[in-house]
Specification:
Strand content: 5-15%
Order of helices and strands: HHEEEEEEEEHHHHHHH
Number of helices: 9
Number of domains: 2
Strand order of the largest sheet: 4-3-8
Largest sheet: 3 strands, antiparallel
Shape: globular
Structural class: mainly alpha
Length: 359
């Protein structure tokens, strides 16, 4: 047993050394691998759904992608076309006297030559049209919504046909314990019983919507791979919904605690009131940032570990790189559920603080 441990330790120690020695010799001939560009490309949004890549008989790299609808409103005109018209950014599309150019997965307005203007910090200065396009993230979100509808409509039909007292079977057996857990251990523990059911549809939707999108993002091939929860606009929108659900239904005592805390000297209130008002916005901000950062970090770590092979230009490091990537990738399935749970729990907590009766 000790001999096996020594061999494993020696293997783990020698792999980086051999890889470094090989990479020094190969680095002169091999092209530099852009790790940052590759990672940002995979976690970013796109106007196509990449399906597969292969090399044909002539040695040419072929990418098979599903083009998505581009919907642009510019100068009073609505234009709808497939993103394949851009040809990956090589072709311009006319729009109301201007031209549309796809540049770094964003659509800009340009002249007939497709000129891109920059400032001193190399930021693009070209204006953007009003864009309602179905990007990869939007398509993934719609797919998650469709899957949710299929699951819950199917379960609802079983309940209506067999009644709520029947023994769960099939898909109902999977969904019912989760719904009961969210209801009993998340919502009703944070919100008073007679008010909890009012917020159950919202919190259940939040939980399953985040979970389904996180799981789709972990599928490495079509129709998965979209980094939906790693999009700050997505998490911002969910946080805004929680903000409105909290403050629109807040009790009189809740607002009294914010704008005129009882039992506190006036000079302390002058300090505490601004802090409480800021707290109205920091709570949803924390929700937004936590979900975004955790999901994005997981994708970045997996891609970074896989990139070690190409950075060192050595196959010797591949076993360790793939092994670590698979470990983190496996943990991401837990994180996908955990982040949905945390977002729902904190949303229920914030709502409960606002609507619960004062004791």
């Amino acid at each position: 047993m000790n001999a096996v441990k020594k061999l494993i330790f020696l293997w783990l120690f020698l792999i980086p050394v051999v890889a470094y020695a090989e990479s020094e010799a190969a680095a002169k001939d091999a092209p530099k691998f852009d790790v940052t560009g590759m990672i940002m490309h995979h976690i970013g949004d796109a106007y196509v759904f990449h399906m597969v890549s292969f090399t044909n008989g002539r040695g040419e790299k072929v990418h098979v992608s599903l083009p998505l609808p581009v919907i642009i409103w510019h100068r009073g005109q609505l234009q709808v076309f497939l993103s394949s018209r851009f040809e990956g950014g090589k072709t311009l599309v006319a729009a109301g006297g201007d031209y549309l150019k796809l540049y770094h997965e964003k659509v800009y307005l340009t002249d007939a030559e497709g000129t891109i203007h920059y400032d001193d910090a190399h930021n693009v200065l070209n204006a953007k049209p009003l864009n309602f396009s179905i990007t990869k993230n939007v398509a993934s979100m719609l797919l998650a919504s469709l899957l949710m509808a299929m699951v819950f409509i199917s379960v609802a039909r079983v309940y209506s046909r067999r009644g709520g007292l029947s023994v769960p079977k099939g898909l109902q057996l999977l969904v019912e314990p989760i719904v009961l857990y969210v209801r009993d251990d998340i919502v009703r523990t944070q919100i008073d019983g007679h008010k909890a059911d009012r917020f159950m549809p919202f919190l259940l939707t939040i939980f399953f919507f985040i979970w389904f999108n996180n799981l789709l993002g972990l599928i490495p091939f079509f129709p998965g791979g979209a980094n939906m929860s790693g999009n700050i606009s997505f998490t911002f929108t969910l946080a805004v919904f929680t903000f409105f659900a909290t403050n629109l239904f807040g009790s009189r005592h809740y607002y009294k605690e914010i704008f005129w805390p009882p039992g506190i000297p006036i000079y302390v209130k002058l300090i505490l009131i601004p802090i409480e008002i800021i707290g109205l916005f920091t709570k949803p901000f924390a929700l937004m940032l936590r979900l975004f950062a955790n999901i994005t970090a997981g994708h970045i770590i997996v891609l970074s570990l896989a990139s070690i092979i190409f950075v060192l230009h050595s196959i010797s490091v591949a076993p360790l790189s793939i092994f670590l990537s698979l470990i983190i990738y496996s943990l991401e399935f837990l994180v996908a559920l955990l982040q949905a749970y945390i977002f729902t729990l904190l949303s229920a907590l914030f709502i409960g603080l606002a609507v619960n009766e004062h004791h």
